[in-house]
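Bug #77: duplicate submission created two jobs. Keeping one. Sequence:
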Amino acid sequence: MFRLLVFLTALSWVAAPALAEGGFLGIGGDVYRAAQSVTYDTGDADDLFLAGETVRATAAATGTAHVAGRWVTLEGDIGGDLYAAGMTVKIEAPVVGDATVTGYEVTLGEIGGDLRASGSKLSLDGPVGGYALLAGETLTLGAPIAGDAHVMAREVEFGRDAQVDGRLVLYEAEPGTLDVPETVAPADRIERRTLPEWEGELGAIRPPSLGEIIARYLMGIVIVAGIAALVAALAPKTLAEIRAQLLVHPARSLWFGFLAQSLLIGAMVVLAISVVGLLLSPAMAVVAGLTGLAGYILGAYAFGVGLLQAVGRPLPAQWSDRAIAGALGAAVACLLALIPFVGWLFVLALTLAGVGAAVLHLLRPRFFA
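Kept job's structure:
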């Protein structure tokens, strides 16, 4: 799924601004289309990138297809790999390469390579040339799988043509509850495992445990405190001036932080749609992300200093005091972030205020000098 997420991000940078009216963008044989309703029917694409509420491809693509939408239907052959996501996904034409598909209701046809699919309602109607990794609430297996099959589903229905030539590994709440016909796989090629084993083997995509959440929380605090201490040791005067700017003029800092981040993100979009600066767009995205991170650290540090002042503590004079202030600000900010809706707005405001305070210190706009 990682490549699918990268595709969605890249499409939003490259194609979405240019396709607001439902047009298309073609670069080097690749086709990008994004709109409320998208139809690809020309058959001139190497790699295919489609995104919209309703997405339909009736023509073939010779390369890899990346598709995302609420209702997705592919009726044209895919000559390479397929990455698809949506609420309802129907793959009715053959895919020569591997397929990675996720959705609520997923129907799959012929897959030449390996298949990775997940959905609440999952149906395999075509043969799979490689292995299959299938996860769903209900699964209908109606075609042969040439390699191994790893299946996690509450209910499994086997069709007349269902067959697994490799190992059939079943992940069940209670091993032995799913009945497998002999025609699908003989008993000596069936392996039954418990659901926790599925979660353990796919730990990269499972929800984090409470212990992991706490560990990440503490790690975030340590990182903010460490960076605040490092900046305090290298540039104590600069850090003090930025902190003072944020605490004395929080509204002004917030406004300039909003302007600065808007400028960076806007530059990223303009570079993308200009095509000439397309290669610089990812660099601008990195700059915007690093700026936001720096703003959060500065904002958390100033927030921690403000909290210490509120309880009668003096301004931090040593680098260790500044590290404590950074840790305190990060800890309280993370706790406030847990408040529904309001929490993330607070963190966003804290981040933008930190960015704005840094901009005011470094650039010193003349009308605020």
